[in-house]
Structure prediction request, 165 residues.
Amino acid sequence: MTLEEIAAGIEVTAEQEARGVAAVDETGEVLVERLRPHAGALPCTPEAAATVVETHAAGTSVGKSAREAGVAPVTAAKALHRCGVSGVTPLSPMAREIVRNWQAGELSRAEALELTGASEAEFALGSYIESHDPDPELSAAVADVGSPTDDDPLADAVGDVDELF
Prediction:
C-alpha cells in the first residue's frame, strides 16, 4: 500500500467542531455581582467584563467576546488578563522579555518595538500585561466560570488507582 492510497479520501476542513465537557457555573450569584466589588481593578465595567469572561470561557475568541460586550478587543484582553485568564498576550516569550527590558529602561521604546516585531497595538497590550499582574480577587471571582462542577462527568470512564494494583 502506497502513501497515495493511504491518503486517498483525506480532506482538510477550515473549521473544527468544539468538543468538550459541558460546564456549569453553580455559584448561585451572577458573575457581574461578584465582579462589582472589584470594579476599580477592571479596565471596563463589571457588566462588560462579565460578558467577556463568560463568552470567552464558552470558547468565543477575544474579538467576538469584545463585540458581544461592546468594548474594544484590547480592553477585553486586558479584562481577561486581570481576571487571571492566561494566553491573551500577543507577544512571544522572547518579545515579553524585550518589553520587560524596555520597562526597566534598558532599551528605548523604538528599539523594543523593532526587536519584538509587534504592531503598535500588540506592543501596547503586551506592555499592559507585563506591567499589570492578574488580580487575585478577580481571579477568584471568575475561577469557576467555564469549569466543570464537582461531579466529574468522566468519572465512570476511568477507574480508581487501586484497581491498578
